[in-house]
Amino acid sequence: MNLVIPFESLSRPLAIPRYEVISAESGKMLGMLEDALNHLLETSVEHQRLDNAVATLNDVYQECCESNWDGYGAQAITEEAYQEAFKLLTLLPSNVPMPEVVPEPTGAIGLEWSRGKRFVFVASVCGENFITYAGLFGVNEIHGTEHFEDSLPLVIVENIRRLYAPQPS
Description:
- By secondary structure, the protein is α+β, with helices and mostly antiparallel strands.
- It has one domain.
- The chain contains three helices and five strands.
- It has a five-stranded antiparallel beta sheet with strand order 1-2-3-4-5.
- A hairpin with a 5-residue loop joins strand 1 (100-103) and strand 2 (109-114).
- Helix 1 packs antiparallel against helix 2 (79-91).
- The protein is globular and about 70 Å long.
């Protein structure tokens, strides 16, 4: 028996048409195949999401890796800052949006999430194993510095999620 799987859309879960299931085992196998294909689809979408953010990071690094990149005396973004920003992007949970990547005149790389004028969260890295962050959540503000090596500090993830949490009416 040949099985043809239509890839009509890669933005939604796949449903393998069940034209004829010969046995319970066949049905179970089709279910397992469907699960495996959906896992591959999710992985592919996640890779695309990360690839887009990394491409932007690469562009920012290339444009700002020399001193005075802004014409006003900005410090060059170092390879260490680039590597830290890359690591931060790869550690972001898949259920949070990717940030906008912005160069900072201090030589740091800012990762910015925004939901409007008074709802912004920025995490900055400069290649020294620290994340400096600031957030504006309506009238509430937060800022701080966290050590950053092998894992993303929980406070960073919590504040990104806070930014996108439903707001009371």
